[in-house]
Amino acid sequence: MAILETRAFGLIAAIATVTIWAGFMLITRFAVKSDFTVEELLVLRLLPGAIVMIPWMLKLGVMPPKMAWPRAAMLMVGASAVFPYVVSKGLAFAPASDGGALAPGMLPFWAALAAFALAGEVPGPRRRIGLAMILLGALLVSLWPILQGGSDGAWRGHLMFLSGSGLWAIYSVVFRQSGLSPVHGLVIGLFWGTLAAIPVLLLSGNVSFARVAWTDLWIMVVIQSFIIGILAMVLFSYAVKLLGAAQSSAFGALTPLLALMGGVVFLGETVTALKVFGVILVAVGVFLASGILRKNRPRRA
User: Fold this and answer.
1) For 6-32, how does the pLDDT look when each residue is reduced to its tens digit (9 = 90+)?
2) 3-class secondary structure for 69-132?
């Protein structure tokens, strides 16, 4: 269809992607505070998606490119199992409004560090300003409440958000250097993530679905596996293809704001003026760090 190749569809895909990312924070927070365990959610995220993607696994293959084993391991289980588990575990301790700022919000900061450490890339002045704003905003969201003694144990979730975001940033750099297509990276992660994580999750004793109604279980399968796990990846790939990497990444600035508003409206989370300011700082920093404002100066004759 012609519409799938238009800039308008690219904009729709980018907005839908960041909405799904924010929805992951809200839905997972709601689920782990009600009838689901984190382990149950990860099973529902991995197993159905892996089954659906079997034809692509057979077509593209599930072996990562030849590289050092730590990098290969990151491609195989980093994005599919480790990152979702760590962030979901964090949502059991801290609000979704915090998670939006400290997980996807901090991603450009960690990605810049990972790119510098693994590839020697140095961000330009405008990106450095954006990265500094992200760091300052994250400190206001997480460190300041701890220093004031009002975090109520949320610091555990904050550490997990930051750890998960850092792991995803390393994965992003390794994935970019691998030369894999997004779909190929997705099927590699789903195959090995399912193979490695499902037995561990089942042996943990936290996967029984005893408290979960069948209707809720199937709804969560659709949301966690097909919408968050697969559809978001496909939509983001479309956005990058039609809009470019910089403009697509700039839309990520909406995720902390959407998570903040969704946490207040749908989950009844309480936010302070300082947290709102911190989240806004993170969002503006993400926008600047995306590189969308970078312009190529015309050459003088």
Assistant:
1) 888 889 989 999 999 999 999 999 999
2) HHHHHHHHHHHHHHHHHHHHHHCCCCCHHHHHHHCCCCHHHHHHHHHHHHHCCCCCHHHHHHHH
